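Obj: model holo form, ligand = nicotinamide-adenine-dinucleotide.
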Amino acid sequence: MTAFWTEPDFDDHEMVQVVHDRKSGLAAIIAVHSSHLGPGAGGTRFWHYPNPKDGLRDALRLSRGMSYKNAMAGLPMGGGKAVILANEARTKSPELLAAFGDAVEALGGRYVTAEDVGISEADMVAVSRRTAHVSGLPVSGANRAGGDPGPFTSYGIYLGIKAAVRHKLGTDKMDGVHVAVQGTGSVGGGVARWLAQDGARLTLADINADGVKALAQELGAVVVAPEAILSTQCDVFSPNALGAILDDESIAALQTKVVAGGANNQLARAHHGQALFERGILYAPDYVINAGGIISVATEYLARRDDTPGSVDDVNALIEQIPNRLTEVWQASETSGVSPDVVADRMAQELIGRG
Ligand code: NAD
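Output (holo structure tokens):
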């Protein structure tokens, strides 16, 4: 067996903690990729992995992703992630959440947690009874940062799509620009609403047939079957459902000038960024365009930690930097002939002192 730290996914992680609490049954991995810019911030995933090694791999990849995302969002936060290895029945007890809170607390603020797949706001409230290093908690008071990150993610993607249209199509007007939206849940639904306000022409697809139909009626959009959205002829394809949707087959089928959406890890493999580039399709690196949610979560945490106002205006001001960041990536890509995903990775590595 090769040493753990020579595994490719290890990627110079600063810390990987394996937690086991016999009494509550908690088995978890807490990974901090980089704390160069601040505490390692990233949510907790509660998931059943038949092979725990896959849980470790998830924690490492997601944690590195958070380093890059937080750095490119201009946040004073590093990157981290926790994975709780759920049992097959996915039983979640108050004792387990308390033990997880103790494990986060024991790290003294080196890792800051929040919700991810399988963890609700109520779970985070339970965790917050044992540690202060938590975000994504309910907030009260007008204009206070916090709450559901979905709408903030949507806003950043909407601004990113407008930047992409400006860059690729040379227009500031969204009126009549055709956007095909895959996934109309929390993020994709919000993106569609923003775009509809600007008069964009929308084609929507979701496996939730009733939900997408209702949204299309509200916005005057067209619905296509989930399998048809990738090959819809459009100006912008906006993936807001699943990861790994950009592979050899789907990239060959795309009939768009731009790919810009919020789904995490859209490229099935690293070389698919290059494949988009070679087809002349402008790609908005996912972790750059979808940072609105983490900007909200981080602002909420810093406000609580430092007793500063942390307003929605502060959050929006940071989100409004996303278009500039994307344009910087695209310009560097065109100058260097390197695809935007690789350019973004290099910029992020530079920002976390690993250039
Ligand atoms: P969500 O569950 O609210 O919405 C996802 C939608 O995708 C659902 O309506 C679902 O029915 C649909 N869907 C699933 N499979 C589909 C398919 N094959 N074809 C078409 N539609 C399909 O989740 P969300 O919070 O909107 O997140 C969407 C994506 O954005 C995820 O990849 C998530 O990781 C990413 N993301 C979310 C946030 C956030 O703040 N919520 C932040 C960053 C990234």
